[in-house]
User: Fold this.
Amino acid sequence: MRKYLPTLSELVDRLSIVQLKEVFIPEHKDEYAQEIADIIYDIQAHINENKSEITAETIRAIVVLSQMNLHIWHNESNYRKGIKDGNNLELTHGLNGIRNVAKNKIQEVVGGRKDYKIDCLAADFKDWEISW
Assistant:
């Protein structure tokens, strides 16, 4: 029996990332589609096993998590291409902090482990603050 299973928030986070890969890396679309199907299966199993009640706050946290993953994807992608304008790795670090808060919001509803290392955004990125 496994003792360290991914939390619901970790599964949702991974789903968001793999969904981006399916769109942005089309040469591996079939592999990503299979991974998505596996993750969806596990999410549903988690919901069923834990009788999780998904609330509007949970849905908002999922939306925020997905948006942060997309912004991180574009920021890092452009940075790797040498496009420096508007692409700041400090921003990626701050957005990862928002991702962790969103994941913790999901865990507050469904229970389970949380990530307690949450970095705040620098003053330069106040526009990214979420009105939880």
About this structure: The longest helix spans residues 56-80.
